[in-house]
Amino acid sequence: MGHLIPSSIAPYVLPVVYAVVIVAVLPLLAGYIVLLERKVMADMQARLGPMRVGPHGLLQPIADALKLLIKEDIIPANADKLMFWLAPLVSVTMALLAYAALPIGPSFQIADLNVGLLFILGISSLGIYGIVLGGWASNSHYSLLGALRSAAQLVSYETAAGLGLVSALLLAGSLSMKEIVQAQYDQGTWFIFSVPVGFFIYMVGSIAETNRAPFDLPEAESELVAGYMTEYSGFRWSLYFLAEYANMIIVAGIATTLFLGGWLRPFARWHDHFPGTSLEFFDVIPSLVFLAAAAYCFYLAPKQPVQIQKAVMAAFGGACLLLAGAMAAALLASPEVMAGVHGAFWFMAKVVAYLYAFLWFRFTFPRYRFDQLMRLGWRFLIPLALVNVISIGIAIVLKQSLGWIPFWAMLVMNIVTLGVAAWLATEGDKPEAALQTADTES
Amino acid sequence: MTNGHTTEVTTTVLGADEIILNMGPQHPSTHGVLRVKLKLDGERVVDSECIIGYLHRGVEKIAEHRSYQQFAPYVDRMDYVAAVSNGLGYCEAVEKLLGTEAPPRAKVVRTILTELQRIASHLLWLGTHALDIGALTPVFYCFREREEILKVFEKYCGARLTTHAFRIGGLQYETYDGFEEDVKRFCHDFEHRVDEYETLLTENRIWVGRTKGVGVISAEDCIALGVTGPVLRASGLKWDLRKAMPYAAYDQYEFEIPTRPTGDTYDRYIVRMEEMRQSRRICLQAVENIPSGPILGKVGKVLKPPPGEVYHSIEAPKGELGYYIVSDGTTQPYRVRVRPPSFINLQAFRKMAQGALVADVVAIIGTIDIVLGEVDR
Predict the structure, then answer these.
(1) Which distant-in-sequence residues (6+ apart) come within 8 Å of A253 by Cβ?
(2) Which residues from chain A sit within 8 angstroms of residue B357, using beta carbons?
(3) Å between B142 CA and nearest CA of chain A
(4) Is residue B123 a contact partner of residue B117, using CB atoms and an 8 Å limit?
(5) Contact B359 A216 (CB under 8 A)
(6) Do B29 and A47 touch (CB under 8 A)?
(7) Rounded to a whole number, what is the distance in angstroms from the first to the last CA of chain B?
(8) Does this complex have an ipTM over 0.85?
(9) Partners of residue B362 in chain A, C-beta under 8 Å
(10) Do A141 and B19 touch (CB under 8 A)?
């Protein structure tokens, strides 16, 4: 490629290609996450979920996207037209922009910023402008209430989630996404095991930030119809939708990078710690996963009722087979290719696992009320996050100055943090009555 | 509460930070076409007003132009999620007017079906109530069990929702082969299923937080407003017409009347869960020993009750369901007045919603357990 492209623009070619890939693939990915959500929901609720469009509903996302694209475009008569038009764009732009610094595997990253994490957090927080503007511009009570709730919620939980991340950053010592993963490789453990409380706080905070159940108050269907999206329809609505799911992938990506070892394979350093034994068969797992998926598709294909559905199912099986082949080929190719392709696989697998937890919560828990949400954020999560940061700091001091073994330092300080958490949880319930009277008096 | 489109409460002057929010008649969680006007200070409810009548069909007026038997299917369309209970109340009221009673076998079968209907109605309440509070999953489990009950209805009389299961004077249909086994099987499975719902909700921190202390109403207020049913019992008053004025075959069975002290949404939830268990108990006792004999008493083809009036009420799933029937000696009632529990319980809404948050409003609508078909008639 080098001799075809002038050297002055050569460094920008790959990032641009990656960016195009992200923008092209993400809507499709979001669509399939929706399908996954509906299937998981159906599974948990003793039903089948989408089964009609394509075999087992596999083409449902495409049908949904087409429907949204050709729907009538409605702007309410009393809406602020410019803002109404602009708001979903702000949301979706910010959500997509955050992908610039998110490494999907060691080689697939648009820009390796040295403040990558800060960039992602900052940019994705700007998405709230889209929600607030949209809620305000719609000129509807439901939208306005939804937007106000969203703003308050984001401010509260961003703090907690950020402090949860800080505990991992203390261990990593860098804001660059790549170096954070490298630090986990060097220390030989994913940070979820070093700072479980930090992971928990970030998880709760990230659910709240992305407005997912049980913190989906801004779009609480049974209360506010659809919250800030009430007046939106068709393509504009789908932009909000895309932004929401893109944000979900972003927070899952952050959690994966900071706590779940990023693109690292499970037991990546097994052979360093236990020389002689080997867990290299983990490298075959990506191929096996896709192979199993392909086999399942081929097994289901003849059972489909209609010829075309048989063909589509077989095509999905073929695609899985291709991916399995690609994984196997990467294994045989150079170490860099192998690291890039398999890294991307492990990264995505962890992201999906994290998202699955999101869905699981959504279908299990009722929704918080607004005042309870605020109380949980300010009176439980933020104090706990502060304590956690301090105790992790102490653990690092114990390790570096007093020469404690990292495992024991972490264990002791995490037990301390958990004790504080238990105290906060019981104490948080107590002064509720006092708080309520103060609230009604004012 | 006002009928139609008058807007008395909310035309009062608004405070600086107050807004009017119109919930319904098209809203995901008003359970039909209830319209609630809320005066909000931020998210806190300052005042509220229920506006009803969007589903008014003039059921009571229709009764004056139908024979006694012809009107029976209409009552199923009031509380359409508890049609069997409606039918029982109406049939027994007309029987009282005629001075007859259903034969013992008919009474027991009526009791079984009515208790199954109570379970079905409570299941629908539980599912939608949980859905309003944001728990997406229980509704599907509840419908799964409700489906089993509806299958029994379907096998018995051919209809699932508006069943018209009973006739004045007894039953039209003999029970089908395997009726007892079906009811027993349902009762057997259902025991574990109720526990299953409770594991999802009863001790769930969020559920408790959303329901405890929400929509509190005292027993005195309940009596003053005429509120009956689980709402009254959750406020601590042990009042159940099945025990207080037994009808059908309820005097033959052992069951408890669950009560709770505080009268909040959580207590109403617990009371209804326990009521489902008690209904199951009644079904099991009844199905063990269905007396043989005729199923339809001698009432004749043309009903001409003597002139006079009668009030008969039963404990429907939602509260006291009463029929006040005036006869002028012809084949058609002179007047039928229905005392629908949903309509009267809904009066408690304003009291419960005072000072609540918007999120509580949907919990309160859910916990009163209204069916708009019955409220508007």
Answers:
(1) A102, A104, A347, A351
(2) 369-371
(3) 10
(4) no
(5) no
(6) no
(7) 16
(8) no
(9) 222-223
(10) yes
What DSSP string describes A110-131? S---TTHHHHHHHHHHHHHHHH
Beta strand B35-41 with B44-52 is: antiparallel
Q: Give CA angle at B352 (B351, B356), nearest 5°.
A: 115
CA distances from A134 to A81, A277, A318 (A): 10, 57, 43
Residues of B in contact with A364 (CB under 8 A): 135, 137, 200
Q: Under an 8 Å CB criterion, which residues of B touch A?
A: 19-22, 27-29, 43, 130-137, 140-141, 144, 200-201, 204, 206-207, 209-210, 355, 357-362
- The rounded distance, in Å, linking the Cα atoms of A239 and A244 is 9
Cα gap A342→A362, rounded to integer Å: 30
Dihedral class, residue B329 (left if φ above 0, else alpha if ψ from -120 to 50, else beta): left
Crossing angle of the two packed helices A382-400 and A141-172, in degrees rounded to 10: 10
DSSP label at residue B357 = B
Q: By CA distance, what is A365's nearest residue in B? A: B135
Which residue of chain B is at minimal alpha-carbon distance from A368? B206
Q: Do B209 and A372 touch (CB under 8 A)?
A: yes
Shortest Cα distance from B30 to chain A (angstroms)?
A: 9
CATH architecture type of domain B59-376? Orthogonal Bundle (1.10)
Cross-chain residue pair B358–A372, CB shorter than 8 Å: no
CA A350: distance to chain centroid? 10
Which chain A residue lies closest to B214 (C-alpha atoms)? A369
A241: helix, strand or coil? helix
Run of H or E including B38: strand B35-41
Query: Measured between alpha carbons, how far is residue A324 from residues A106, A318, A321, A335, A408 in Å?
Result: 20, 10, 5, 18, 41
Query: Which runs of E-coded beta strand occur in B137-222?
Result: 166-167, 170-171
Walk along chain A (442 residues) and give the pLDDT tens digit of each residue.
Answer: 456 677 777 777 877 888 888 888 888 888 888 888 888 888 888 888 888 887 888 888 888 888 888 888 888 888 788 888 888 888 888 888 888 888 887 777 777 777 888 888 888 888 888 888 888 888 877 888 888 888 888 888 888 888 888 888 888 888 888 888 888 888 778 888 888 888 888 998 888 888 887 887 766 666 666 777 777 877 888 888 888 888 888 899 899 988 888 787 777 777 676 766 666 777 778 888 888 888 888 888 888 888 888 888 888 888 888 888 888 888 777 777 777 788 888 888 889 899 898 888 888 888 888 888 888 888 888 888 888 888 888 888 877 887 777 777 777 777 887 888 788 777 765 545 444 544 444 4
Distance from CA of B204 to the nearest CA of A (A): 8
Backbone angles phi, psi at A38, to 5 degrees: -70, -35
Q: Determine the distance in angstroms separating the CA of B82 from the nearest CA of chain A, rounded to an integer.
A: 24
Question: Which of A40, A45, A223 to substitute to test the interface with B, most B CBs within 10 Å?
Answer: A223
Please tell me which of the candidates A45, A145, A214 has its beta carbon nearest to residue B134.
Answer: A214
Yes or no, beta carbons of A145 and B132 under 8 Å apart? no
Cα–Cα distance between B341 and B54 in angstroms, integer?
Answer: 18
- Can you name the residues that pair with B339 across neighbouring β-strands? B322
- Beta strands B44-52; B2-3: pairing state: parallel
Q: Is residue A125 within 8 Å of residue A247, measured between CB atoms? A: no
Domain range annotation of chain A: 10-68, 71-264+362-392, 278-332
Contact A286, A345 (CB under 8 A): yes
Nearest CA in chain B to A44: B137
Q: B209 to chain A: which residues are within 8 Å by CB?
A: 368-369, 372
CB contacts < 8 A (A, B): 85
Instruction: Give the relative orientation of helices B104-133 and B179-201 as an angle to the nearest 10 degrees.
Output: 30
**Tokens 């109380």 found at:** A375
